[in-house]
Amino acid sequence: MAKCSVCFRHCDIPDGKIGFCGGRTSKNGAVEAFNYGRITALALDPIEKKPLARFYPGSRILSVGSFGCNLRCPFCQNYDISWSEQAHKYAETAETVRPEDLVEIALQTREKGNIGIAFTYNEPLIGYEFVRDTARLAKAAGLKNVMVTNGTAELAVLRELSPYIDAMNIDLKGFSDRYYEDVLGGSRAMVMAFIEEAVRNCHVELTTLIVPSENDSEDEMRDLSRWIGGLKNPDGEDVPLHISRFFPRFHMQDRGPTDVRKVYRLAEVARENLRYVYTGNC
């Protein structure tokens, strides 16, 4: 039995078993990344798709994903690799890639406009060792490193990664403990602490998916944007916020998509406190 130290769950994992996230295991009394180098998705994406609006706009980035996640968002778009039973099947079918091999692939796509590597699709923090090892090599090769994350990790994990990460898009999924705990199975306090530390080290943009009847009030957006307004990126610029429209997915197909007018109205509210507000999926 070994205790995982990545996130607030602090799973006790018996030898040979898998933690809650599906991406970490215990071996000889020590926790390690079960999904290390096991790749389920690889694509050359526009940087704006991460989404990052103010980090090398117009460029492309090699996006890589593995499997597993430490949240349980019922609307997850990538549930097949994140938290369903199907995700565990990827442990047997995923292609294993070494950090140096992934960096070489990224270098070969420079002629197509690639600036680096984005760790995304599933939750990269649960396999932070592979992110760290790959990002270190990528940075040495002159590539940029991006992480798209839910921010649910201890600060010790972030500090392992910070020397090598150039930009992050972090989900700030809402601004109530009820929503984080009861709907997502997460910790708002941990995410907020993660964001506060991240902005000291790299360019950060945030994303909030607006789910009808869950996190769509003007009061909540006003509180959320006011808090973000107190943050600054390392260059002194305001932290951008992406407000995204929800579509029925996975276990949340019992409600319609977010009204576009609601998304635009919440963007107006956010602009009371923020300079950079973007809308998505509208």
Report the end-to-end length measured between terminal Cα atoms.
47 Å
Described by strand count, sense and barrel closure, the largest sheet is: 8 strands, mixed
Count the E strands. 14
Helix/strand/pairing category: alpha/beta
Q: Treating each run of at least 4 consecutive H or I residues as one helix, how many helices?
A: 9
CATH class descriptor: Alpha Beta
Tell me what you see in this structure:
- This protein starts with a strand and ends with a strand.
- The model has no long low-confidence stretch (mean pLDDT 96).
- The longest helix is centred in the middle third of the chain and has 13 residues, at 128-140.
- The protein has an eight-stranded mixed β-sheet with strand order 6-7-9-10-11-12-13-14. Strands 1-2 form a two-stranded antiparallel sheet. Strands 3-4 form a two-stranded antiparallel sheet.
- The chain has nine helices and 14 strands.
- By secondary structure, the chain is of the alpha/beta class.
- It has one domain (2-280): Alpha-Beta Barrel (TIM Barrel).
- It has helices at residues 79-82, 85-93, 99-108, 128-140, 155-161, 177-184, 188-198, 218-229, 260-270, and strands at 2-3, 12-13, 24-27, 30-33, 38-39, 41-46, 60-65, 95-96, 114-119, 144-149, 167-171, 203-210, 241-245, 277-280.
Write the layout of secondary structure elements.
Layout: E1 2-3, E2 12-13, E3 24-27, E4 30-33, E5 38-39, E6 41-46, E7 60-65, H1 79-82, H2 85-93, E8 95-96, H3 99-108, E9 114-119, H4 128-140, E10 144-149, H5 155-161, E11 167-171, H6 177-184, H7 188-198, E12 203-210, H8 218-229, E13 241-245, H9 260-270, E14 277-280
Parallel strand pairs: 7-9, 9-10, 10-11, 11-12, 12-13, 13-14
Antiparallel strand pairs: 1-2, 3-4, 5-8, 6-7
Helix pairs in contact: 3-4, 8-9
